[in-house]
Design brief:
Strand order of the largest sheet of chain B: 6-7-8-3-9-10
Order of helices and strands of chain A: HHHHEEEHHHHEHHH
Helix content of chain A: over 70%
Shape of chain A: globular
Strand order of the largest sheet of chain A: 1-4
Number of strands of chain B: 10
Structural class of chain A: mainly alpha
CATH architecture of chain A: Orthogonal Bundle
CATH class of the domain at 6-81 and 157-235 in chain B: Alpha Beta
CATH superfamily of the domain at 6-81 and 157-235 in chain B: P-loop containing nucleotide triphosphate hydrolases
Number of helices of chain A: 11
Radius of gyration of chain A: 19 Å
Order of helices and strands of chain B: EEEHEEHEHHHHEHEHEEHH
Strand content of chain B: 25-35%
Structural class of chain B: alpha/beta
Oligomer: heterodimer
CATH topology of the domain at 6-81 and 157-235 in chain B: Rossmann fold
Largest sheet of chain B: 6 strands, mixed
Shape of chain B: globular
Number of domains of chain A: 1
Largest interface: A-B, 17 and 28 residues
Strand content of chain A: under 5%
Distance between the termini of chain A: 44 Å
Distance between the termini of chain B: 36 Å
Number of strands of chain A: 4
CATH architecture of the domain at 6-81 and 157-235 in chain B: 3-Layer(aba) Sandwich
Helix content of chain B: 25-40%
CATH topology of chain A: ABC transporter involved in vitamin B12 uptake, BtuC
Number of helices of chain B: 10
Amino acid sequence: MLSPDIILAAVLNGLMNGAIYALIALGLTLVYGVLHIINFAHGATLTAAMFVVFIAFTVFGIDPFVMIPAMALGFFGVGYALQRFVVGPAAQGSDNNVLLITLGLSIMIENGLLAVFHSDTRSIDVPYGFSSFDLGFTFLSVPKVAGFGVSLAVALVLWVILIRTDTGKAIRAVARERMGAELAGIDVEHIFAVTFGLGAATVAIAACLLMPTFYVSPRIGNAFVLVAFTIVVLGGMGSIPGAVTGALIVGIIESVSGLFLDESLGQLGIFILFILVLLLRPTGLFGART
Amino acid sequence: MADPLLSVEGLVAGYGGVPILRGIDISVGAGEVVAVLGANGVGKTTLNKALSGLVKASAGRILFNGADLTEASPGAIVEAGLIHVPEGRKILPNMTIRENLELGSYRRAKAHRKQNIERMFTIFPRLRERAHQLAGTLSGGEQQMLAIGRGLMAEPSLLILDEPSLGLSPLLVEEMFDLITQIAADGLACLLVEQNVVQSLEIAARAYVLENGAVTMSGSAKDLKSNPDLEKAYLGI
């Protein structure tokens, strides 16, 4: 039997990973909730953002945490422009086309990165990479704790935007009642692009939080998005609180099942959970029942 | 005579190249209540969608308040003060009553949002009681009130009401028409698009009768009421 200290340490570690998963899942669930499509380019966007952080650090010496505001703004702009000028017009109003276009985008981004960086894994060496807080029974990595804090803060900001601002209300309006929103004077194409931009901004922030303790390779994003997808289904498609709760649960399950099963089998727990959710509660924890 | 507030000239519109409206001329003067009557499927809703920019006109012109809105986007039309309260209400079911009203002033009259919400709560006291309830939980009549309230939040110059009495109990239909009379009494121009002939002619000054995408009768409400052809238009004889 494992000692409670070790399990508690695994839970804490899982929570910290889960917070980053939450950030990635937020973008996915937001775009799904509003545009009703799965953005297949989400993973590639994350990978691209991680490479930007990598280059900024290795070439210009800019710390990933310092990069957060610029990355969020820059990727918001990229996401906005992609939806407004590429995905939206090319889709011609068909959701199937959106799926194919985002899939195509992800293939282009990944292969572009492969051509330039090859399939090597790369990491950056920040001075605080191995510093940790001593809790007595375990150590917590400083960059991971910071990542946890930033993730939850971003989730909170996103939630406040959606609840309090006119743009956020317009996003929620378009998600459920497009014609009603349009007749209130809401520009649906603009709102779609804003939503896409927010999705890109959240993965860009996630990239800043991941790089100090993780590595990047041209296909890394999909590994995260696969987990994020499980989270979105677990929390309920389109639900923001669901994505955050689901992510923390998945982070803990991954970490604890890694403890019992073996490090490399940790993700097994996630997918067992995924199948169970689909069997028992297909709308997810916070999903609307239809 | 001064230029009318809304003037529609030779409007042709439809879906996928099939014209539903085949050259429509109507006008609404400032502060006037005008009814557009017709049975199901004659093009009433298409007319409203064309007026609010959801369906593009393939020919003809829409002039509103001196501006040409024929090619305008739905947002620009809202900004101009032409507000469409759609058939089926199209309220935002996942948002509270207050949020629905707030979004009514997303594009126009934002500065007066607070006092206008207060005004809506005075006109529709039941909405005040339920201000923090999700709009999807309201009854049909309450949803209709909310849809009208959301339209009024933009301080419209012209309010298009598409079938406001549809699906309501006879008692609520009475109440709805009383409400529209009350709103119009404040000087707001209304284009009332209805199947309910008798009550619409009670409150409208003038009316148009639509058949097969064209205006077949028009005139003062009083004249139309006593016109035996009106019944024929409805029964399609």
